[in-house]
Amino acid sequence: MPEVDPVHVRLPNWVGDACMCLPALALLQQAGHGLVLHGRPWAGDLLNGLTPAAFVPLGKRFGANLATTRQAVPDRGRPRGIVFPNSLSSAALFRLAGIRAAGYRGNGRSPLLRWALPKPSGLHEVEVFYRLAREALLRWHPGIELPATPGPRLALPLTPAHRAAADRALAEVGITGPFVLLAPIATGLHHGRSKAWPLFGDLAQALATQGMTCVTCPPAHEAEATRRAAPAATVLPPLELGAFAALTQRAAAIVCNDSGTSHVAAAAGARQITLFGVTRRERTGPWTPDAVCLGDDGRWPTLPEVIDAVRSLLSSPST
């Protein structure tokens, strides 16, 4: 067995990318390593079920992050780490904190990395993250046997507290039966184009007319935009990400854009329909064989297509 020193992991800054790291994190644990996770505060709640050795919250100021990271590094030994983000600052953070890190080359990072690896092309992001962890482990533990590719699902472990918080949110608005969870907001642009399907309002109205309960659960800063995008849906109180992942599990179906919500739903094993119009599902789509993916880069799905997909999902047995 390899030695079981904890591995320091610089998590991505985006929710979807953090979810897509799950197979890589599981591989590190499979190899016998504990995880010291460094990332945005929301990641601590989302990944709490992994039972990490420690979680180090990072903000947006490099100096403060460096001080926090140094406090997490033991006085003795030469800790190892993995840097999942591609930024120069993430590699510099671990180097200056005394962590010998593996990461992908680029952006002038190679001198800051102990193991600077070439980044593969043409792969899904899940495979990109997984390959980084696997290549690092092969260098740390020559002869170790590791699966060459990630499994078909992300497998986010949720806690009883996550599930209880989701149940409380539903009870607060009086929802006790099946519901469809809508996630109409997708932050930012992709090559100047909106990543949000424009017909969520029509979808919510059509489903409500057919007697289906629709809910949304946006973060506080997206609440007003969500109400405008889907006024026929019931708005749940904001939840932390672990509880939101549990909510996606509770939903009879979730309809979302190619966004962080899609990856949270995939990680939780939810019954999801993901809508594409400006991105490629082959690279950033939900990592699960169970997701229904509609549309493609350059073509949004029509409203009847989405309604039919929801009906089909609701009529199919749960797995």
How would you characterize the overall build of this protein?
The structure is a single chain. By secondary structure, the chain is of the alpha/beta class. It contains 13 helices and 14 strands. The strands form three sheets. It has a six-stranded parallel beta sheet, sandwiched between helices. The protein has a six-stranded parallel beta sheet with strand order 11-10-7-12-13-14, sandwiched between helices. Helix 2 runs parallel beside helix 6 and helix 7 packs across helix 10. It is elongated, with a radius of gyration of 20 Å. The model has no long low-confidence stretch (mean pLDDT 94).
Question: What's the topology here?
Answer:
Elements lengths: L6 E4 L4 H6 L1 H9 L4 E5 L1 H6 L7 E4 L4 H10 L8 E4 L4 H9 L3 E5 L10 E3 L7 H16 L19 H13 L7 E4 L5 E2 L2 E2 L5 H10 L4 E3 L6 H7 L4 E2 L5 H10 L2 E5 L2 H9 L3 E5 L4 H4 L7 E4 L7 H13 L4
Helix pairs in contact: 2-6, 4-5, 7-10, 10-11
Features:
319 residues, six-stranded parallel beta sheet, 38% helix
- Within the largest sheet, what's the order of strands? 3-2-1-4-5-6
Provide the β-strand percentage band: 15-25%
The number of helices is 13
The run of helices and strands is EHHEHEHEHEEHHEEEHEHEHEHEHEH
Give the number of DSSP strands: 14
* Distance between the first and last residues' Cα: 36 Å
In short:
This protein has 319 residues and is of the alpha/beta class.
